[in-house]
TrEMBL record:
Topology in membrane: Multi-pass membrane protein
Family: Belongs to the bacterial sugar transferase family.
Domain Bacterial sugar transferase: 271-454
Highest classification ranks of the organism: Bacteria, Pseudomonadati, Pseudomonadota, Betaproteobacteria, Rhodocyclales
Keyword Nucleus: no
Protein's UniProt keywords contain Signal: no
Molecular function as annotated in GO: phosphotransferase activity, for other substituted phosphate groups
Assigned GO CC terms: membrane
Localization (cell): Membrane
InterPro entries listed in its UniProt record: Bact_transf, EPS_sugar_tfrase, Sugar_tfrase_EpsB_2
Protein name (record): Exopolysaccharide biosynthesis polyprenyl glycosylphosphotransferase
């Protein structure tokens, strides 16, 4: 894992991105040379423009999720991602290639050549991503611990298509920790530093929750650190690998003294300007869809078209969110709040389509413009559920230190859920966002939202 702009990216993913950008850059240059012959191309013009084109195209497809490892071997999911990349990239590439200086060589033929080259690269990347991921510089990792946490760490490090490290084995952390890993991978009893040197370890992951009574070899962990070996605790590991801040390994002291959770006037101002500009643009683009939606709701179930509901926002302040009505008018006729579910029988036929495509969320752009919400942030919950969840889930109210969002990190990383357990899972993603939110992360979440909606990988 490499840290770029406070966000972690798998090293093999960065290698793929750089390789594809270099390949596209070189292929475009070859195409320029072949079309410019016998004249001599102006390298001072063509090299920078080819580099910008290659980086832009690869960057666009990175944001669309082409390089993000799939959670399971799904040909359908892989084809959907490649199809979306082709659908978005080809028109953009065709338009950009017509504006760059090289278009003067042979405008139409060169544009078609560039589009064909890009399409071939995307198809090849989609095919390669179905194979086991690997890294040229795989780290050798030793897991300290043999219990439940150690087993979870091992599963996360060896998930299909995400393998970019070499787990050399487990070392008992001391105490009476229960063995929940493959005993064949447990190293013989020895000192930590001795095992690190013998196995040529680059990183030690401390997967031991109990810290008292000399369970952890603190002195040897310090020696490893001083010897240049990376030492990672459970909280940092889950943040880096899963994009979560795990509740079970979270302590108030970590929230207080740890990095992140920076707000500040400058960050708030930039985020607000970004929200206003993008929300206004999206409203203009989505206006025809919103008008058709209004008509369909009226035809199926009559008025009202919109649904207003109290939600909890920044600092615990209650505001009224606005959405297209996707449920029957008598959905809560008894006045008792209920979790919405995936196959909720209160949802109308039009509502099911609206929810699947997230069209019902579009009116919330008005909430963004007036300042109640942001484009990206934790999804706002109803006061009734906030009170329940705050009693049952530690640190739940931390998510209210930023504005709620129309979409969020949890929405693009976790499937639709409607229970306390699902709220816990989503909170762990929300805490990651609150800790690390930047304009770059907001942009990535917006692109991920488009991908999730168009490929059907996520739900409402």
């Amino acid at each position: 894992m490499l840290k770029v702009f406070v966000h972690y990216f798998p090293s093999h993913t960065l290698q793929q991105v750089l390789f594809d950008a270099l390949l596209l850059f070189l292929v475009v240059l070859v195409a320029v040379i072949s079309l410019a012959s016998p004249s001599v191309p102006d390298w001072a013009v063509f090299v920078p423009s080819a580099l910008v084109f290659a980086l832009s195209m690869v960057g666009l497809n990175t944001a669309m999720g082409l390089y993000r490892p799939v959670m399971k071997r799904s040909h359908k999911q892989a084809f959907a991602r490649v199809g979306l990349s082709l659908l978005v990239s080809i028109p953009v590439a065709y338009g950009i290639s017509g504006l760059l200086p090289w278009a003067e060589l042979a405008p139409h033929s060169f544009q078609l050549s560039v589009v064909l080259l890009l399409a071939t690269l995307l198809l090849m990347r989609g095919l390669v991503n179905q194979r086991q991921a690997s890294s040229l510089f795989s780290a050798r990792v030793l897991i300290l611990g043999t219990g439940r946490d150690a087993a979870q760490v091992y599963r996360d490090l060896t998930r299909p298509l995400q393998r970019s490290v070499n787990v050399v084995g487990f070392l008992r952390g001391g105490g009476d920790e229960k063995l929940e890993v493959d005993g064949r991978q447990v190293l013989p009893a020895q000192g930590l530093l001795e095992a690190v040197h013998a196995m040529k370890v680059n990183e030690v992951i401390v997967a031991v929750r109990e810290r008292r009574g000399g369970v952890l070899p603190i002195r040897e962990l310090l020696d490893c650190k001083l010897a240049g070996v990376r030492v990672v605790d459970l909280t940092s590991f889950f943040e880096r690998v899963q994009g979560q801040v795990r509740l079970e390994s979270l302590r108030a002291s970590w929230l207080i003294y740890g990095d992140g959770f920076r707000q500040g006037l400058t960050r708030t101002f930039i985020k607000r300007v970004f929200d206003i500009l993008v929300a206004a643009l999206l409203l203009i683009v989505a206006l025809p869809i919103m008008l058709v939606t209004c008509l369909l709701i009226l035809v199926e179930d009559g008025a009202p078209i919109f649904y207003r509901q109290e939600r909890v926002g920044l600092g615990g302040r209650v505001f009224r969110v606005i959405k297209f009505r996707s449920m029957r008018r008598d959905a809560e006729k008894d006045g008792k709040p209920r979790w919405a579910s995936t196959n909720d029988d209160r949802v109308t036929r039009v509502g099911r389509v609206l929810r699947k495509m997230r069209i019902d969320e579009l009116p919330q752009l008005f909430n963004v413009l007036v300042g109640d919400m942001s484009l990206v942030g934790p999804r706002p919950e109803r006061p009734f559920f906030v009170d329940q969840l705050a009693r049952e889930i530690p640190f739940y109210n931390v998510r209210h230190c930023v504005k709620p969002g129309v979409t969020g990190w949890a929405q693009v990383r976790y499937q639709y859920g409607a229970s306390v357990d699902d709220a816990i899972e989503k909170l762990q993603y929300d805490l990651y966002y609150v800790k690390n939110h930047t304009l770059i992360l907001d942009t990535l979440v917006l692109f991920e939202t488009v991908r999730v909606v168009l490929t059907g990988e996520g739900a409402h």
